[in-house]
Specification:
The chain is of the alpha/beta class. The protein has 2 domains: 162 residues, Alpha-Beta Complex (Aspartate Aminotransferase, domain 1), CATH 3.90.1150.10; 262 residues, 3-Layer(aba) Sandwich (Aspartate Aminotransferase, domain 2), CATH 3.40.640. The chain is built from 15 helices and 15 strands. The strands form 3 sheets. It has a 7-stranded mixed β-sheet with strand order 4-10-9-8-7-5-6, with helices on both faces. Strands 1-2-3-13 form a 4-stranded mixed β-sheet. A hairpin with a 4-residue loop joins β2 and β3. α8 packs parallel to α9. The radius of gyration is 22 Å and the shape is globular. The relative contact order is 0.16. The model has no long low-confidence stretch (mean pLDDT 94). Bound molecules: pyridoxal-5'-phosphate (PLP). Pyridoxal-5'-phosphate binds next to α6.
């Protein structure tokens, strides 16, 4: 599959048959909007069972910075399969586990001694980072942010902000977890960005003085750029301000780089944009080209505070995930994918910044590298999730896979594979622009 000209993507007989089987056998709730079935993925393209080809701007929800089935990863997996699948690191360790820990200790922010261990999913990495922070500090409190998303297990869900659909009717949640405002400059019209930063940072201080002393807080967990929350990009002053407060009170700073890591923002990790070195970092998603593996990397003395059997999981750090991740890190470097991420962001801003000037329905177009998003509003200036749903549906019919995000679902977010060709990028943007144009025109009547 090279560059393609997208036509109309119509679900065919194979998709219809699979849809019937799906509805009979798989719970309706979480999967009821899915009507496409994959046959083959390659680079930035996905083909469905009926032969429709899609440009994938969702990139497996940010798991595919190196694209679908990169040959380097596939070949490393084949080699690994010939050796062993699962000695289980609790029983017998293996070199790819150690090598990947070495690599992550080396490439994550900070020159201090670090250690890394592996799990299988993003939420598990968050759970374990919190356990390690509590064990090391002897404190219980954990602060996360409004609009944050950290996963669906109980602690990760407790730290997540949005109630519906993530938390509704699933309580009670973990005690001693607290939420802090996160600056979304485009939605806080009454203050300038500097004022908003200062206002939120001040709130930290007053909270510590009047409610829970800072010395009872084990960690602050922060997405450097909020993913599910709508690709909200905080200022350097805000992130550095949070870190400074952490240092002042001996609170650990956990950077959740699960969605931002591995080149997405034009640097290997988004924290590098802010010049902030976290104490602990969680990684997953694009770490291993779509294989289920996650990592916690942190200062060696913090990571060493947990004892035998206290952290882990049967499948953590699967050898397949480890060898895939080793190839991913090489690919990002050898194929200049950081540069590609920046190019994607520039082209996005050029085209959609122009479109936003044309339509009042489009709010901010924001991006850092290839983490790109645009917001939509209705005629009263309220978040407009409906138009986003329409754009997504129409784009899908024309062979472009997109995702929404944000508290009100009014944000279109792009997580395209960074291996996308210039032609595919151009074509994807063309489809997106024409669909937005149509939907905005339709709304204006
Ligand atoms: C920032 C962040 N943290 C944690 C998670 C949870 O990861 P997982 O779905 O693999 O449990 C996600 C998933 O979207 C995420 O974006």
């Amino acid at each position: 599959m090279g560059d393609i000209k997208i036509k109309t993507a119509i679900p065919g007989p194979k998709a219809k048959a699979l849809l019937e089987r799906k509805e009979k056998n798989i719970p309706v709730g979480p999967f009821n909007t899915i009507k496409s079935f994959a046959e083959k993925g390659e680079g930035a393209l996905l083909t469905d069972v009926d032969g429709n080809t899609f440009i994938d701007f969702a990139g497996g929800i940010g798991t595919l910075n190196v694209g679908h089935c990169p040959p380097e990863v596939v070949s490393a997996l084949h080699d690994q399969i010939d050796h062993y699948l699962h000695p289980c690191f609790h029983v017998m360790m293996y070199e790819p586990y150690i090598e990947l820990a070495e690599v992550l200790n080396d490439i994550t922010p900070g020159d201090h001694d670090k250690k890394t261990f592996f799990l299988s999913s993003g939420a598990e990495a968050v759970e374990n980072a919190v356990k390690i922070a509590r064990k090391f500090s002897g404190r219980k409190g954990i602060i996360s942010f409004e609009r944050a998303f950290h996963g669906r297990t109980y602690m990760a869900m407790s730290l997540t902000s949005k109630v519906k659909p993530y938390k509704y009717q699933f309580g009670p949640f973990a005690p001693e977890t607290y939420k802090w405002p996160y600056p979304v400059y485009s939605q806080e019209k009454s203050m300038s960005p500097d004022e908003l930063d200062a206002y939120i940072l001040k709130k930290f201080e007053t909270f510590f003085q009047s409610e829970v002393p800072g010395t009872e807080i084990a960690a602050v967990i922060m997405e450097p750029i909020q993913g599910e929350g709508g690709f909200n990009i905080p200022s350097m002053a805000f992130v550095q301000g949070v870190k400074k407060i952490c240092e002042q009170y001996g609170i650990l700073f956990i950077a959740d780089e699960i969605q931002t890591g591995f080149g997405r923002t034009g640097k290997m990790f988004a924290m590098e944009h802010y010049g902030v070195v976290p104490d602990l970092m969680t990684m997953s998603k694009s770490i291993a080209a779509g294989l289920p593996i996650s990592a916690v990397t942190g200062r060696a003395e913090i990571m060493d505070s947990v004892g035998i059997g206290e952290i882990g999981g049967t499948y953590g750090g699967s050898p397949l995930g480890c060898v895939a991740a080793l190839e991913v890190v090489k690919m990002i470097d050898e194929q200049n994918l950081l540069e590609k991420a920046n190019l994607f962001g520039e082209k996005f801003q050029e085209r959609f910044g122009r479109l936003a000037k044309q339509f009042p329905e489009i709010g901010e177009t924001r991006s850092l590298g290839a983490m790109c998003a645009m917001e939509f509003f209705d005629e009263n200036g309220l978040p407009n999730g409906q138009i986003v749903k329409e754009v997504l549906a129409k784009a899908h019919q024309r062979g472009l896979i997109l995702m929404s995000a944000g508290l009100y679902g009014n944000v279109i977010r792009l997580l395209a594979p960074l291996v996308i060709t210039d032609g595919q990028m151009e074509e994807g943007f063309e489809v997106l622009e024409s669909v937005i144009y149509e939907c905005c025109k339709q709304q204006e009547g």
